[in-house]
Amino acid sequence: GLLPLFDPPRHDTAATIEKCHEQGIEVKMITGDHLLIGKETAKMLKMGTEMYQSETLIQAKAGNKEALHGYESLLDMCE
């Protein structure tokens, strides 16, 4: 499912994401913001900072090995 988040995140967003993790739910962030803003937001929410621009994902899907950043597949990259 999808869960919309506000920018900047609400005070309880990090706790909501943590509850999802406790229930075995993986949380992924898709943003239209600049990559640096996305990374800072993810850092605030304790989601890590491994992110890719859409062009990188498109190239990885097309089979570009460099775009895979050492992963075996696009699916591995996104997990």
Briefly say what this structure is:
This protein is mainly α and 79 residues long. The protein contains 4 helices and no strands.
Explain what this protein looks like in three dimensions:
By secondary structure, the protein is mainly α. The protein contains four helices and no strands.
What structural keywords apply?
single chain; 79 residues; mainly alpha; 42% helix
Set down the secondary structure blueprint.
Blueprint: H1 13-22, H2 35-44, H3 54-61, H4 74-78
C-alpha Rg, in Å?
Answer: 14 Å
Apparent shape: globular
Distance between the termini: 16 Å
Strand content range:
under 5%
**Helix-strand makeup class:** mainly alpha
Mean pLDDT: 88
Could you estimate the helical fraction of the residues in percent? Answer: 40-55%
For the report, how would you describe the main beta sheet?
A: none
Name the poorly predicted regions: none
Put simply, the count of helices is 4
Question: How many E-type strands?
Answer: 0
Order of helices and strands: HHHH
